[in-house]
From TrEMBL:
GO annotation terms (biological process): response to antibiotic
Protein name: ABC transporter ATP-binding protein
Organism, as annotated: Enorma phocaeensis
Any one cellular-component term (Gene Ontology): plasma membrane
Lipid bilayer topology: Peripheral membrane protein
Length: 287
């Protein structure tokens, strides 16, 4: 499968406030690739460099070293037409405060050169049809977030960068966003998403990369990461002997065999961590 974007050995540092101090290294030898049509989760503690990475990939910042490719060619050679193929939702996504939700979407449809005919359906999908005439300046955080997401998707982009897309949303709206992202992925859209919600990453993403202090410490499918950090324990709930703990290797095989032969097994559970536990193991930091 073709890579739609790649980063190879990318480094970036920022000048500190005081000129006599060394520059702060923000990203160090960052290397990964995102395949066309996949949902790629970019996870990390606050300040790890997630938003900075999106700004590099969208040319809001310039790298110090390394290579970045977008749509198969160096990002330095990206043309304006390439960015017409991209949608972006970030903490700086621009919605015009004195315009309504609907008028903002019509404005972005016009900029992107697409018909506004699909706006009513999008508003309905995000539960905003009754609020379509509400001015952005009077919207709640959740309403703003949903409107900004629709603005990012108004032109059916091939690649979308979503920075915390469900931040501030209630469970119903979050579920609808997840459903919309699944439909986009099924239609071939590539999704690059940052999130602090590990359950969201497991549900939405084909693969995840975990960033810690500017370096990628893991990159794989969520299930593969969980299996990599699985513990060598099995818990067996029995009919008459309570819960028995054993190991899931040759040493534990006789115990399991005896319980199965005796008809004692009610349930068997292996001890795999969830993605949040893997995250904590790799970073040593909470989200």
């Amino acid at each position: 499968m073709m890579n739609i974007l790649t980063m190879e050995g990318v480094c970036l540092s920022f000048a500190r406030k005081h000129r006599d101090e060394e520059r702060k290294q923000v990203l160090s030898n960052l290397t990964f690739a995102v395949r066309r049509g996949e949902a790629f989760g970019f996870l990390g503690p606050s300040g790890a460099g997630k938003t900075t990475t999106i700004k590099l990939l969208t040319r809001q910042l310039a790298k110090d070293a390394g290579r970045i490719q977008l749509f198969g060619r160096p990002i330095e050679n990206a043309a304006p037409a390439d960015y017409e193929r991209i949608g972006i939702l970030s903490d700086t996504s621009a919605l015009y405060e004195r315009m309504s939700i609907e008028d903002n979407l019509r404005f972005y449809a016009n900029i992107r050169g697409v018909s506004p005919s699909g706006i009513p359906r999008l508003l309905e999908r995000m539960g905003l049809e009754r609020d379509r005439k509400t001015l952005i300046k009077t919207c709640s955080k959740g309403m703003r977030q949903r409107a900004a997401l629709l603005a990012a998707l108004i032109h059916s982009p091939e690649l979308v960068f979503l920075d915390e897309p469900t931040s501030g949303l209630d469970p119903v709206a979050r579920t609808e966003v997840h459903r919309m992202l699944a439909e986009l992925r099924s239609a071939g859209t590539t999704i690059f998403i940052t999130t602090h919600d590990m359950a969201e990453a497991e549900e939405v993403c084909d693969r995840v990369g975990i960033l810690n202090e500017g370096s990628l410490v893991a990159c794989d499918e969520p299930d593969a990461l969980k299996l990599r950090f699985a513990r060598n324990r099995v818990s067996v709930r029995t009919r008459t002997r309570g819960t028995i703990e054993t190991t899931k290797d040759a040493a534990g095989a006789p115990v399991l065999a005896e319980l199965l032969e005796a008809g004692e097994c009610l349930s068997i559970h292996s001890d795999e961590p969830n993605l949040e536990e893997v995250f904590l193991e790799l970073t040593g930091r909470e989200l």
